[in-house]
């Protein structure tokens, strides 16, 4: 099944942090749909090779006000999608001032420039980390906001800045709070490459590749189906689709906020078992004590996004998430810096998931 979007291909969209994991997939989908895309990134965590070839690219540090004003002076942008941020939860606990200063400061720089240059729409990449941990029930937009780490706190501050900017200046804003982005673009030419890698699915696949000896499981006595933590994983293509739908919605309304997740929680053991099935390789595990602060279950309720924008997580079943990620990691074992390798035999064709449609449709 393919995504269809009514679009105005003449729109210019600035994608900050568009060389990162989620930002690059959103930039790719925008290009496929006919938008004119400019990616600006300092490549501190992103990769130049992740930027779509049809997008313009600007190497820039968005913490510098003069730099971002120059970017806006060179082209009139209809919308900004803001992904640029520090995103490591663990690191944020040891560097809280850096996270608040850089994430909020960068957002303020880009947002002020957008307002000054007449940009009509602004979408913020936010996070479920703004919410209070909630075991046993899914998390909707009405959940208590109580960030458990400085990263989540910085994103909450960014959301409040957007709220006041829309009220004072009229720029239409939206925040998308997503859970665990995963998977990769079909075909194996775009995927996840974090350094260091902290996300579970890439780490599990590194074990399947022989790059790690085992995967650590932190706690097996949680009140879940198998005792291990449960998380909501949403395919990065479904995230990209949510961003495009939100961009279209901002043409006629503002002050939008959506939780974006599959609504299906998977345990750590389920991830490992699914990866073993997809790769055909054993993935040893070692049990470790619980980590402080890990909630038993975090699962999204994306009903508002489904109802208001017609969004559906078409690619977020666990098999598709892991399979597309495995294609990417198999072809690029060293990430974007490695050469493209043939896909391993027996793991299936790279074309099992259709990309979103390139043609507009009502």
UniProtKB/TrEMBL annotation:
SUPFAM superfamilies for this protein: NAD(P)-binding Rossmann-fold domains (SSF51735)
InterPro entries associated with the record: Epimerase_deHydtase, NAD(P)-bd_dom_sf, UDP_G4E
EC code(s) of this entry: 5.1.3.2
Annotated region (Disordered), positions in chain: 339-362
Domain NAD-dependent epimerase/dehydratase span(s) in chain numbering: 13-261
Cofactor: NAD(+)
GO molecular-function terms, A-Z: UDP-glucose 4-epimerase activity
Coiled-coil zones: none
Keyword annotations from UniProtKB, A to Z: Carbohydrate metabolism, Isomerase, NAD
Pathway(s) per entry: Carbohydrate metabolism; galactose metabolism
Reactions performed catalytically: UDP-alpha-D-glucose = UDP-alpha-D-galactose
Family classification: Belongs to the NAD(P)-dependent epimerase/dehydratase family.
PANTHER family: UDP-ARABINOSE 4-EPIMERASE 1, UDP-GLUCOSE 4-EPIMERASE
SUBUNIT field: Homodimer.
Protein name: UDP-glucose 4-epimerase
Source organism of the structure: Inquilinus ginsengisoli
């Amino acid at each position: 099944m393919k995504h269809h979007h009514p679009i105005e291909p003449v729109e210019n969209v600035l994608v900050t942090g568009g060389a990162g994991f989620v930002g690059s997939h959103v930039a790719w989908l925008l290009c496929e749909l006919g938008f004119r895309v400019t990616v600006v990134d300092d490549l501190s965590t992103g990769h130049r090779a992740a930027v779509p070839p049809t997008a313009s690219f600007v190497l820039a540090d968005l913490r510098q006000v003069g730099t971002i004003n120059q970017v806006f002076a060179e082209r009139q942008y209809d919308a900004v999608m803001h992904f640029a941020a520090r995103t490591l939860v663990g690191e944020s606990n040891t560097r809280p001032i850096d996270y608040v200063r850089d994430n909020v400061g960068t957002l303020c720089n880009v947002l002020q420039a957008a307002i000054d240059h007449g940009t009509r729409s602004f979408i913020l990449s936010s996070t479920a980390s703004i919410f209070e941990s909630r075991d046993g029930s899914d998390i909707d937009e009405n959940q208590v906001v109580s960030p458990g780490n400085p990263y989540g706190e910085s994103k909450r501050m960014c959301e409040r800045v957007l709220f006041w900017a829309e009220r004072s200046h009229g720029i239409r804003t939206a925040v998308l709070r997503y859970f665990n982005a995963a998977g990769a673009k079909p075909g194996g030419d775009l995927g996840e490459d974090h350094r260091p890698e902290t996300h579970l699915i890439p780490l599990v696949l590194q074990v399947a590749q022989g790059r790690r000896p085992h995967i650590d499981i932190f706690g097996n006595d949680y009140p879940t189906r198998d005792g291990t933590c449960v998380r909501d994983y949403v395919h990065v293509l479904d995230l990209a689709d949510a961003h495009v739908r939100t961009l279209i919605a901002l043409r006629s309304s503002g002050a939008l906020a959506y939780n974006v997740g599959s609504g299906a929680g998977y345990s750590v053991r389920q991830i490992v078992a699914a990866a073993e099935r997809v790769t055909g390789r054993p993935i040893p595990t070692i049990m470790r004590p619980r980590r402080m602060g890990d909630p038993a279950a975090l699962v999204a309720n994306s009903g508002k996004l489904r109802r208001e924008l017609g969004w559906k997580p078409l690619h977020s079943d666990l098999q598709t998430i892991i399979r597309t990620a495995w294609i990417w990691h198999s072809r690029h074992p060293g990430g974007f810096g490695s050469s493209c390798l043939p896909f391993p035999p027996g793991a299936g064709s790279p074309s099992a998931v259709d990309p979103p449609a390139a043609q507009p449709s009502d």
